[in-house]
């Protein structure tokens, strides 16, 4: 896990996302699973896109998977990133789905 870069705006947790951020601080990756149909979701949400359910449980993920796509950023997109490029943003299909 990367260290926080000083000066970057931080996400503001809300009731839907606060558990995700708490677990991530402990270096644990969790995603939501719909209690009705078991579809997995990230980012967290309040309504299941598949069945319309509104009850979710948090499921731990291994962090393993296949790189689906990536992009390398060469130009800083925020002043706090000056001198910290290039960096990669990666979309991963997790083994769990």
Keywords:
5 strands; two-stranded antiparallel ribbon; mainly beta
The amount of helix comes to under 10%
Let me know the number of strands: 5
Strand content: 25-35%
* Secondary structural class: mainly beta
Give the termini distance in whole angstroms.
Answer: 21 Å
Numbering strands along the chain, what is their spatial order in the largest sheet? Answer: 2-1-3
**What is the typical, i.e. mean, pLDDT?**
93
Which ranges are low-confidence, i.e. pLDDT below 50, for 5 or more consecutive residues?
Answer: none
Rg (CA only): 16 Å
Characterize the overall form: globular
Specify the biggest β-sheet.
Answer: 3 strands, antiparallel
Total of DSSP H or I helical runs spanning 4+ residues: 1
Overall tally of structural domains = 2
């Amino acid at each position: 896990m990367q260290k926080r870069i000083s000066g970057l705006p931080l996400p503001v947790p809300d009731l839907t996302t606060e558990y995700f951020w708490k677990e991530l601080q402990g270096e644990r990756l969790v995603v939501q699973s719909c209690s009705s149909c078991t579809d997995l979701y990230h980012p967290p949400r309040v309504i299941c896109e598949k069945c319309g359910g509104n009850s979710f449980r948090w499921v731990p993920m291994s962090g393993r998977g296949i790189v689906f796509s990536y992009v390398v950023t060469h130009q800083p997109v925020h002043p706090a990133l000056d001198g910290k490029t290039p960096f990669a943003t990666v979309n991963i299909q997790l083994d769990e789905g």
